[in-house]
Amino acid sequence: YRLTDEIYIVVFASGRELGDEKEIQAIKDFLAGKEFLPVKYAPRKNEVRCSVLSDTSDIQEAVDDNILKIQSLANVKWVAPFIDEVRVWERKLAAINDVIAVWVQVQVKWQYLESIFKGSEDIVHQLPKEATKFDNLDKKWMRIMNETVSAPNVDLCCNVPDRAVELRYIDEKLDECQKDLSNYLESKRWVFPRFYFISDDELLSILASSGARSVHDHMLKMFDNSAQLVFKGASEAIVGVDSQESEHLVFDNAVNADKASVENWLNTVLTETKSTLRNILKAAVFYYPKMDRLDWLKKYHGMITLCGAKVWWTFQIEDAFANVKKGKKGAVKDLSAKLSMQLNELVSEMDKDIDRLYRKKVNTLIIVDVHGRDIVDRFVRDSVMDAREFDWESQLRFYWDKQPDTCILKQCTGTFEYGYEYMGLNGRLVITPLTDRCFMTLTQALTFYLGGAPGGPAGTGKTESVKDLAKAMSIQCVVFNCGEGLDYKAMWSIFSGLSQAGSWGCFDEFNRIELPVLSVVSEQLRSIQSALKANQSPFLFGDKEINLVSTVGIFITMNPGYAGRVELPDNLKALFRPVV
């Protein structure tokens, strides 16, 4: 046979060209038959607004596979007769891929903003400009989706002239709407900083509701133990708050929430709560020596009895020291006997048939009284007889100071004002010598404008000890569980809320945050601590000036030696006083 090799080459090339032609035809057939599956979108009951794309992951995977196939075809020499067609389909597939990616992104943003601007008339009234902007984008989106429903073919939908341009425009403008909305929420948080402790969706649900009762679901995230507001009948006048345990606090002055913006009347509720508690505590401290102790305990709120009893415990010990100086050597021993007698009275109360709230009060006061008696017993044993001795200076001491006319706490060199955060009947931890050491370290850290870092294995009470000190000082303590998901923006938002509210933040498993984020966090903390040292308010935090309440405290807990934990950078370690 002549020309065998040449014939073989031609036949081989023809076979490869036929294979390539079939590959191209398979891609054409795929795109000709592939359709989107729109589903009806009904965000509110009996209201179908339009259709939206269902899960497009299968389509995107198939398009990605076909892009790889067409790219590999474009690089073989046998495709030369079809190269122009290959280039056309390469561009089409790339366009489809880009359009679907943007489309899905736009759909997520549109659904989020639609629920806000179309689901809440109140938000529309408060943000008319942004609502109008969203209306225009909403019309464009509805038109695109209606066109998709009438012709759901993937190729036709994605290769409509300027479809990609239009979707990118909607995406950009939805981002602007989102930014305007974030600025609006930020303005609300700036007025009432505890809004930083709830999510955007929760804050929007509060702002979108017309009645003051809408905050009930979120009260415990914004207040330590104010579970719900008490209203005067069906009106919007708030006359008090209830704790989780159903203890009632009645305000001195009612707060009118009618026609007031939610952030303003919540601020008034907070101020009125603290003012009422201060007045009640002042009266309780005054009447303590004039009443039978058990009658006094029944009359006043749980947190008031704990603080009032500690004020008089402090006075009685210092009075005993003064009597020792005057020559009455057994004054401290006499006090120990008196405290034991008071404790026995409380224990005998627990054996009686008493109501649930009173039992909780007695139970908690027993915990505090046992600790108080143990300290005095130690003073008797070690012959501590002077108020200047370290054994007494290192205790958490309560005083009613006549000059600012409020309760203050002292420990070592630290002096703190009582916070008057309503605590209800949420109990106290048993106070051990180790707890005392922990409290002393944390209060000294606060005195020097540092954070506290209780360390130790899991389940040893690091977070609970911080919370218990917050209860003793009546300051709100917000606990955050840290993880890889926390970025520097989320940390900025949390620190901003804590600084403006004057609350404590306890960050559990702080060393689970990623190292690059921790580097930024150290600078954020440094700016807060520098402002505290300089007594500067407002101060520049990031790129924004915010107010600073001096009671703010940042505490971290870490479980060393576990997988997924990082070592803290040295510049961050220096900002916390370790408690081990």
Describe the structure in brief.
The protein is α/β, with parallel strands linked by helices.
Q: Roughly what fraction of the amino acids lie in strands?
A: 5-15%
Between the first and last Cα atoms, what is the distance in angstroms? 94 Å
Kindly report the average pLDDT value. 87
Could you describe the largest sheet, including whether it forms a barrel?
A: 3 strands, antiparallel
Low-confidence stretches: none
Query: What general form does the structure show?
Result: elongated
Q: For this entry, what is the oligomeric state of its chains? A: single chain
Number of helices: 20
Share of helical residues: 55-70%
Tell me the structural class.
alpha/beta
- Total strands: the figure is 15
Computed Rg: 34 Å
Read across the widest sheet, the strand sequence of neighbours is 3-4-5
What does this structure look like?
The chain contains 20 helices and 15 strands. It is elongated and about 130 Å long. α13 (331-350) runs antiparallel to α14. A hairpin with a 2-residue loop joins β7 and β8. The mean pLDDT is 87. The strands form six sheets. It has a three-stranded antiparallel sheet with strand order 3-4-5, with helices on one face. With 580 residues, the protein is an alpha/beta fold.
